[in-house]
Amino acid sequence: MENKTIFDTVNSKTAFGIGFVSAILMVGTLGFIVLGGCFLKGDCTNLNGNAAQADDLAIAKEEAPAAAQVAADEPASIPIVSSTDHIRGDENAPITIIEYSDFECPYCSKFHETMVQVMEEYDGQVRWVYRHFPLSFHPNSQSAAEASECAANQGKFWEYADKLTENRASLGADVYLSIAGELGLNTTTFQSCLDNDEEETTITTMYQGGIGAGVTGTPGSFIIDSKGSATPVKGALPFETVKTMLDEILAE
């Protein structure tokens, strides 16, 4: 009996199809072996000259946030205290506490109480500098800051600031005018100042100064000693904590 192969029992078209499929399977198998080997070695860059460039791009994207973080951690620049600042206490006191604050912030209200106590117990040793840092998600913080500046134009900033803090939960146009009348301000001049946003630039300048100093939330404060060294005070620290910090500075 004559021996026949499979190709002897099929027609030419079928034989071609079988050969074509076999060739594809062989190429696929060879490619799988090559790719598998390079992945096991951890280096497939020879298969594609652009792979190394893609890796470099990915690394650059990952390193970008780290570089930004380094920049953010650089020493902050706190605007120096000047005659335009609101200063409470002895202007020649050896210690200065600069507070960036928001009249609608509940934590600022608590820290305001702490600072009032500091001024009472460290009379002549500490001066308190108040600067505005209205937060965008507090709808009345900007207008309250402007109202306090309109009061400052009539020499009543601190008295007005104390009243705003007491009325933190009900800030608004009626409250601003009511406090102005209570403090004996010229309400017509006060209202004109507020209606015309005459102190908007003042608030913006203080806010930008706070950003430059590294303030990210309120209250954001700095204790500055007689040598000019600044210690950040983040949040509404209680009086006892601030007292410890002050005593350590005064003991140096």
TrEMBL record:
Keywords: Disulfide bond, Membrane, Oxidoreductase, Redox-active center, Signal, Transmembrane, Transmembrane helix. Pfam families: Thioredoxin_4. It comes from the Bacteria. GO terms for molecular function: oxidoreductase activity. The keyword Signal applies. The keyword Signal applies. Residues 58-251 form the Thioredoxin domain. SUPFAM superfamilies: Thioredoxin-like (SSF52833). The chain crosses the membrane at residues 15-40. Belongs to the thioredoxin family. DsbA subfamily. This is Sodium/proton antiporter. It comes from Candidatus Uhrbacteria bacterium GW2011_GWF2_46_218.
